[in-house]
Amino acid sequence: MAEQTGPSKSRWQHFLGIIWASTVMLTASAIGAYVGWQTHGIGGAIGLGVAGLIVGGLLSNPSILLQLFT
């Protein structure tokens, strides 16, 4: 019997991509919210949390970030 490694490998990479993107966006949002809370209160926490979410989204997929620079 032939071993089917192609589809399972792509599923594994897809799963790791989801985990990576979620981790990066969550970390960037948490850092932004913490810094915003410490410097500007609740408004800063919300604002920098959203900014962190956007930056995290860009950092989670480097190809999008490179397209912005070119």
Short summary:
With 70 residues, the chain is mostly helical. The protein contains two helices and no strands.
List the helices and strands and how they pair.
Elements: H1 6-60, H2 62-69
Describe this structure in words.
With 70 residues, this protein is mainly α. It has a domain at 27-70. Helix content is 90%, strand content 0%. It has helices at 6-60, 62-69. The longest helix has 55 residues, at 6-60.
Q: H/E order of the elements? A: HH
Overall, the morphology is elongated
Structural class: mainly alpha
Largest sheet: none
Tags for this model:
elongated; 70 residues; mainly alpha; 2 helices
